[in-house]
Specification:
Chain A: This is Tubulin-specific chaperone C. The complex is a heterodimer of chains A (about 400) and B (about 180). By secondary structure, chain A is an alpha/beta fold. Helix content of chain A is about 45%, strand content about 20%. Chain B has one domain (about 15-180): P-loop containing nucleotide triphosphate hydrolases (Rossmann fold). The chains are: A alpha/beta (about 400), B alpha/beta (about 180). Bound molecules: guanosine-5'-triphosphate and magnesium ion (MG).
């Protein structure tokens, strides 16, 4: 691993200095930047400028020379220079070509190593089913160690991969981790094996830290400008209520972080645009809220109906709950069961204004793109959430 | 010269730093990263996995790793510890209900051997919210004053307005630079 790192650094260091101008192109190791183009492109385009300048210089001196007194000598000189320039140009091209091929070589090495490692882990996993418990344990442990090593290999290679290759590798690793978890679940159900093996694996791949030890006990409280929050202001919201009808107006919740906790059998109407909304310990409630400019965070909610517009919806430990949703990025669930989704159908007279206050795009609704963080298996849909069938959707709402 | 020494030399040449950004889900890690890089923050989804960004800042090359903070992803955090120069711990200052979780997760990280050399920057994020706790309150809630093992600093910020993000990153890079780029 370290060898690759060094190779990469060395290569980057000497290859990407233009031999002519001795100027290092601005972004000397390219690749890493999510947006930058291939390294060698930077190099060649930096160098391409040079031949142009060079030709111009040669041509200018040639013009001056043509009718000079000792024209022959000058002509000789001119030809000599041209020749020199041509040689240098060829050199430069050769160099550029070489750097290109070295870059390709590194990437080639990365891909082939990555792919063969990945294949061998997949192979290992595929032999787990059917193996006896001891054998499966061993295989899983090996696979865990190998996956962690592969992760490290990717981490170490970041500097010379293009964004595309990096993304590919990330995706592949994520899939690998998902199928590792899945296989573990299948082969060794129940037992608290996963955590132990992960710890062990992590220890095995752990290398000595390369950094020097810190000065112990220094805890600076820098004199940097502080942005303190308002002094313990009253939290906006409702808590510990039963069987109540609760509302808030636009003025009350504008740009606020609203918190609703420990509500049972309540109907809540929030007519306006808060900055964030937190729901915790909600039982058998109907909660409707105008456009939330950032995220809605739901935890421990059961047997309820929610209707909300937001940038992100984050749902946790929630069961048997319907969500009528407008979400501009994505909704996620974690540790949930029986959550169902439909597009937001509730509205109130000033909702459009509140949409513009919130900055949410009313035309962009990803209500059915739900990520289940407990269900990373690609292909099979999560059993923890569903789409509410059209005929069962609520279309009329109490005021 | 051993391999590690060569590697360290190369690192010095590049003035490269690896920063790891962690924190509970919904803290605002990805938003901080994108805002800092001048990107649109309105389309960010909860992170399923991780993001890497490399950017130039004051002559340093920052390799920033932003890893998802959902509960189910936290056990993978350890995969990213290796070679971390700076740890950025992001806190949702308005999320009083999970400050306990937040403190626990952070103190577990500080015991990690592979993070032993890292400088710690705590971002008390979402200071734009009226209900946000001050950075002093967060400092107390997370018992930062008890930390003797790492250089640390807490800064109140807002990823939405961009307030103080620069101040935080500047402090962090200065502290790391003083530690790893000093001439031998
Ligand atoms: N009001 C306010 N909202 C913020 C701020 N920073 C982030 N947010 C919002 O908080 C929500 C979560 O932000 P993310 O950046 O996705 O959080 P994260 O820490 O990356 O979360 P994970 O990826 O799940 O670990 C988003 O809706 C953001 O718009 C802030 O400073 N102020
Ligand atoms: Mg994120």
């Amino acid at each position: 691993m370290y060898f690759i790192g060094i190779f990469c650094s060395l290569a980057a260091w000497y290859l990407f200095i233009c031999s002519k101008c001795k100027v290092q192109p601005q972004n000397s190791r390219g690749q890493c930047d999510n947006k930058t183009v291939c390294k060698s492109d930077v190099h060649t385009s930096a160098c391409r400028r040079h031949p142009t300048n060079m030709d111009a210089v040669v041509d200018a001196s040639a013009e001056n020379a043509v009718h000079g007194e000792d024209g022959a000598a000058k002509l000789q000189d001119r030809l000599q220079r041209r020749h020199q320039a041509r040689i240098e140009d060829t050199e430069r091209r050769k160099e550029a070509k070489q750097s290109q091929s070295v870059a390709e070589e590194k990437i080639g090495y990365f891909s082939s190593t990555f792919n063969s490692e990945r294949a061998s882990i997949a192979e290992l996993l595929s032999t787990c089913s059917g193996a006896d418990r001891a054998a499966a344990t061993q295989k899983l442990e090996d696979a865990t160690v190998k996956t962690a090593q592969l992760q490290k290999f990717v981490n170490d290679s970041v500097c010379f991969l293009t964004q595309y290759e990096l993304r590919q590798a990330q995706d592949a690793l994520q899939k690998l981790q998902a199928s590792l978890a899945e296989t573990r679940e299948e082969a060794l159900p129940k037992k608290k094996f996963a955590f132990r093996s992960r710890t062990k694996a992590a220890e095995k791949v752990s290398k000595q830290a390369t950094d020097s030890p810190p000065d112990v006990g220094r805890s600076p409280d820098s004199g940097i400008t502080k942005t303190d929050g308002a002094p313990a202001s009253q939290q906006c919201g409702f808590s510990y209520m039963n069987n109540a009808f609760l509302t808030k107006t636009a003025e009350e919740i504008l740009n606020q972080d609203v918190l609703l906790t420990h509500l049972t059998n309540c109907k809540v109407r929030l007519f306006g645009s808060p900055s964030t909304l937190h729901l915790k310990h909600i039982d058998s409630c109907e909660i409707l809220c105008g456009p939330v400019s950032t995220s809605v965070f739901v935890d421990n909610c059961r047997n309820s109906i929610l209707a909300v517009a937001c940038q992100q919806l984050r749902t946790h430990n929630t069961t048997d709950t319907q969500v009528y949703l407008h979400v501009t990025s994505r909704a996620i669930i974690e540790d949930c069961k029986g959550v169902s989704f439909a597009p937001l159908s509730w509205s109130y007279p000033t909702m459009q204004e509140d949409f513009s206050v919130s900055g949410l795009d009313p035309g962009r609704n990803n209500w059915n793109q739900v990520d289940d963080f407990n269900w990373l298996a690609a292909g099979t849909p999560s059993p923890n959430w569903t789409v509410i069938p059209e005929e069962d959707r609520k279309t009329t709402w109490d005021p | 010269m051993g391999l590690l020494t060569i590697l360290k030399k190369m690192k010095q040449k590049e003035r490269e730093m690896r920063l790891l950004m962690l924190g509970l889900d919904n803290a605002g890690k990805t938003t901080i990263l994108k805002k800092f890089n001048g990107e649109d923050v309105s389309t960010i989804s909860p992170t399923l996995g991780f993001n890497i960004k490399t950017l130039e800042h004051r002559g340093f090359k920052l390799n920033i790793w932003d890893v998802g903070g959902q509960k189910s992803l936290r056990s993978y955090w350890r995969n990213y510890f290796e070679s971390t120069d700076g740890l950025v711990w992001v806190v949702d200052s308005a999320d009083r209900l999970r400050l306990g979780d937040c403190r626990q997760e952070l103190s577990a990280l500080l015991l990690e051997e592979r993070l032993a050399g890292a400088t710690l920057l705590v971002f008390a994020n979402k200071q734009d919210l009226p209900g946000a706790l001050s950075k002093e309150a967060i400092r107390e809630a997370l018992a930062l004053d008890d930390i003797k093992s790492h250089h640390w600093c807490i800064i109140g910020c807002s990823a939405v307005t961009g307030d103080n993000l620069l101040a935080g990153v500047d402090w962090l890079t200065d502290d790391i630079a003083a530690r790893i780029f000093t001439a031998d």
